[in-house]
Amino acid sequence: MGEMEQLRKEAESLKDQITAARKAVQDTTLQEAAAGITVVGRVQLKTRKTLRGHLAKIYAMHWAVDANLCVSASQDGKLIVWDTITTNKVNAIPLKSSWVMTCAYAPSGNLVACGGLDNMCSIYNLKGKDGNVKVMRELAAHTGYLSCCRFLSDSEIITSSGDCTCVLWDIETGTQKTVFAGHQGDCMSLAVSPDFKFFISGACDFTAKLWDIREGVCRQTFGGHESDINAIGFFPNGNAVITGSDDATCKLYDLRADQELITYQDSSIMCGVTSLAPSLSGRLILAGYDDFNVNIWDSLKSERVGVLAGHDNRVSCIGVSADGMACCTGSWDSFLKIWN
Amino acid sequence: MSASSSIVTMKKVVQQLRLEAGLNRVKVSQAAADLQQFCLQNAQQDPLLTGMSSSNNPFRPKAVCSFL
């Protein structure tokens, strides 16, 4: 038998082993385990603020950790930092490239980042000495578009790219510290674990991967989706992962059981999931869809308990504030809305 | 792709699968119970779940009384 054939056989055997090992711990399902609790009552959130100012589709938004600030990115070529209570624009940052697909707020509140079809991640210092917001660093090395970025600190950021890799960068030197390779399709989204030790990525190979940031390795791979994964997030306790896909479903995968526990789907929903965010306790999952709506799911019972209808175009991004008090949606209709 | 680089790639795939196969897995009953417990323990601190009065809601303007 040739070496290639032998390796193929070994790969198939290992895949079967993993399937069997997952089945071996499947002594129940989340549905069965949660049978005794009642579905959450109807969740009716209202638009409290509308943030107007972008002149084109909004592609991304991210809440700051402190305060009620958030940053949004639009293909009008601007990053806007908003005070969501007053609706004032704290900063309006013009971008070199208007083809932006992602933005992020550093936990410190000092920096924001963005990137897109320019294949770069640009870091901006909001707290520069003369008050002007300038590009601090341009992180260039990806050979495909930048789909997502998340700060670990003011000195490190993780990016995901259409070149099928994720990268951990040293912002100070502008160099790649670690390249996380393994996905067989464009990486579309990433999320960092609450303890900052791991991150998860969702890709166009229909899988989600859990990466050990310091060791630089993939620890677990989750399949089951039937199309691209566009959105990904950690369950607030860090032990589970939620994904949203073009296959019109969201799924919850438990990291310790190493398998999918539940799928959030409805026969009436036939369009892709673009974005998602869990509420503070994890009981609610807010997911944005291509049909202009946000569906709110009871994460334990897998039932739809609410809808946010208010945008006139696709909901492209969603985020729950750090204190859990509000949810922000961004849309191709150029508006952001704050709901609670 | 040349034959030798295909083999290198395949070796990496096998190595990764070995790593993932070696994981210690927790029973689903335990994992599900922990997820439920977390949700229930934190439910009262989840404003989107429990709702809030307008006086506690920073996004709603507080009612202001003025003397006419």
Largest interface, with counts of residues having CB < 8 Å to the other chain, equals:
A-B, 64 and 42 residues
Query: Class of chain A, according to the CATH hierarchy?
Result: Mainly Beta
Architecture of chain A, according to CATH? Answer: 7 Propeller
> Termini separation of chain A (Å)?
63 Å
Tell me the radius of gyration of chain A. Answer: 20 Å
Strand content of chain A: over 45%
Largest sheet of chain B: none
Q: Please, how many domains of chain A?
A: 1
How many beta-strand segments of chain B?
Answer: 0
Secondary-structure element string of chain A: HHEEEEEEEEEEEEEEEEEEEEEEEEEEEE
Oligomer: heterodimer
| CATH topology name of chain A | Methylamine Dehydrogenase, Chain H
Mean pLDDT of chain B: 90
Low-pLDDT regions of chain A: none
Write down the overall geometry of chain A.
globular
Class by helix and strand content of chain A? mainly beta
Strand content of chain B: under 5%
Strand order, main sheet of chain A: write it out. Answer: 1-28-27-26
Helical residue percent of chain A? under 10%
Radius of gyration of chain B: 27 Å
Helix content of chain B: 55-70%
Overview of this protein structure:
The complex is a heterodimer of chains A (340) and B (68). Chain A is mainly β and 340 residues long. Chain A has one domain: Methylamine Dehydrogenase, Chain H, CATH 2.130.10.10. Helix content of chain A is 8%, strand content 49%. Chain A has two helices and 28 strands. A four-stranded antiparallel β-sheet of chain A has the order 1-28-27-26, with no helix packed on it. Chain A has a four-stranded antiparallel β-sheet with strand order 2-3-4-5, with no helix packed on it. A four-stranded antiparallel β-sheet of chain A has the order 6-7-8-9, with no helix packed on it. The mean pLDDT of chain A is 97. Chain B is mainly alpha-helical. Chain B has a domain of 42 residues. Chain B is 56% helix and 0% strand. Chain B is built from three helices and no strands. Chain B is elongated and about 85 Å long. Chain B starts with a helix and ends in an 18-residue tail after the last helix. Classes of the chains: A mainly beta (340), B mainly alpha (68). At the A-B interface, helix 1 and strand 17 of A face helix 1, helix 2 and helix 3 of B.
